[in-house]
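During the reporting period the student researcher (J.K.) took over the structure-prediction task from the postdoctoral fellow and processed the backlog of single-chain submissions. One of the processed entries is reproduced below for the supervisory committee.
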Amino acid sequence: MFDLIKSIPPTLKYEPVTIVAEGNFVIVHGRFSGFGAPVNWIAADILRIEDGLLVEHWDVIQDEATEEQSKSRAPMFGQTFPKNQ
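J.K. obtained the following structure tokens:
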């Protein structure tokens, strides 16, 4: 885990937009950018907390669709499409 954290580029940006909690579960929906991939990632991180400690983690990650790719013409994250993907 420490090696993973050390390998993260200083340009990485994470923007959480929605956080939902129920019982021992927390879901965080956000965008990762600036990590060297050709497109941003939209992610839902699902966490299980026990006695104040993170005990399980799952995630769902998808490339962020451009305006041209979006069937609904709505962005996947926030109110606008990113200018630079």
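The committee noted the following: Strands lie at 13-22, 25-33, 41-50, 53-63.
J.K. will present the remaining backlog at the next meeting.
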